[in-house]
Amino acid sequence: MQFTKAESGIRKIFISQILFIIGFATSLITAVVSMLVHTMNGETQNQIVLTLFTSYLNCFSISIMMIGFIMMLIGVFIACVDDENFKVALYSIVFGVALAIISIVWSSVDAVGTITNLLTTLTSYLAILYIIQGIRNLAQKLERNDIEKKGSFLYKLFSVLYIFETCITISLLILSDISAIIPFFILQIVGDITSFFQNLLFMLYLGKAKRMLKKKKE
Predict the structure, then answer these.
(1) Alpha helices in the chain (DSSP H)
(2) What percentage of residues in the chain have a pLDDT greater than 70?
(3) Total domains present in the chain
(4) How far apart are CA 133 and CA 80, in angstroms?
(5) Which of 15, 95, 134, 136 has minimal Cβ neighbours within 10 Å of its Cβ?
(6) pTM
């Protein structure tokens, strides 16, 4: 039994996670430098240089994560031929894009921004969970219990992380309203670290799935 489409799709999703990890690492550096800038007194030359530096880092982070998103979208689209769970993941991603557009169009309405932020977090996690479930199904068909058990563990772990990240998102929204700059940056760093390790675990699992399917293909 071969799953050539799933193997090709998962390989692209794997690459997308590498790009996401680079993006999250850059975002983490940006948050740390931004917090450092806000602790400086007066508009010194160092502060101006650091501000420009964070602007460039932000642009780089956004660009690389956009490329990663496109790679993930293509990968899930290809993989959905071999398992229905990838199709649900694809719907979640598309719905997340629609929410992001709504958030941009209605950015002046705070309530809309809050709701779309929370729903975007949900759709992101749903996409990951359904990709994991798709890989678990393929592992069962290929009698790879080790991959299936690892996926079961990550499925539960990421479900808990979703609750944790939702709490962080809500806290960031509250802190931004009361202009608590330092706590805001600290919490943002915690969120970025969580996202970094989540994507790292997901990437490692995708690597195992990729090797499983490639070995079967050979």
Answers:
(1) 4-39, 45-79, 84-105, 110-141, 145-177, 181-217
(2) 86
(3) 1
(4) 12
(5) 95
(6) 0.84
